[in-house]
Automatic annotation (TrEMBL):
<dbReference type="GO" id="GO:0009279">
    <property type="term" value="C:cell outer membrane"/>
</dbReference>
<dbReference type="InterPro" id="IPR025949">
    <property type="entry name" value="PapC-like_C"/>
</dbReference>
<dbReference type="Pfam" id="PF00577">
    <property type="entry name" value="Usher"/>
</dbReference>
<dbReference type="InterPro" id="IPR042186">
    <property type="entry name" value="FimD_plug_dom"/>
</dbReference>
<dbReference type="InterPro" id="IPR000015">
    <property type="entry name" value="Fimb_usher"/>
</dbReference>
<dbReference type="Pfam" id="PF13953">
    <property type="entry name" value="PapC_C"/>
</dbReference>
<dbReference type="GO" id="GO:0015473">
    <property type="term" value="F:fimbrial usher porin activity"/>
</dbReference>
<dbReference type="InterPro" id="IPR043142">
    <property type="entry name" value="PapC-like_C_sf"/>
</dbReference>
<feature type="domain" description="PapC-like C-terminal">
    <location>
        <begin position="71"/>
        <end position="126"/>
    </location>
</feature>
<protein>
    <submittedName>
        <fullName>Putative fimbrial biogenesis outer membrane usher protein</fullName>
    </submittedName>
</protein>
<dbReference type="GO" id="GO:0009297">
    <property type="term" value="P:pilus assembly"/>
</dbReference>
Length: 138
């Protein structure tokens, strides 16, 4: 779906036509990722273009397919994990973030362990035991 362009849809090949862009002006082209598969990550959802009158402008929105994982975790003292804490793999690559309600959003479901870091500390979660709904970050 393309917000601001009622009735315009993206086809199965990922193409859409926006007929009402204003020439010689900055136009924001936006896509709404709602309805896309959960494992698809968008590099961006808004692009700015300045078309000439009568021109066709190609706008590419990069995507990548990820093996995502969501799980809820708490600290060993039963406190929730801090909102917006960063999640890293053991090799130091950032793989996610902590959301509301101590919900962990991880973009690499193949990782065996996640290290959660925030300004006041850090802990790690074993991701091999994904069957439990409430994991403990130690």
């Amino acid at each position: 779906m393309l917000p601001g362009s009622p009735g315009t849809r993206v086809d199965s090949n990922g193409y859409a036509i926006l007929p009402y862009l204003r020439p010689y002006r900055i136009n924001a082209v936006e896509i709404d990722p709602k309805g896309s598969h959960d494992d698809v990550a968008f590099d961006r959802t808004v692009a700015q273009v300045v078309p000439w009158e009568g021109s066709v402008v190609k706008v590419a929105f990069g995507t990548k397919v990820q093996n995502n994982l969501t799980l809820q975790a708490r600290q060993a003292n039963h406190e929730p994990l801090p909102f917006a804490a960063s999640i890293f793999s053991p090799d130091g690559k950032e793989i996610g973030v902590v959301g509301q309600g101590s919900m962990m959003f991880i973009s690499d479901a193949n990782a065996k362990r996640a290290i959660v870091k925030w300004s006041g500390g850090q802990c790690s979660v074993d991701l091999g035991q994904q069957t439990t709904k409430d994991s403990v970050c130690r």
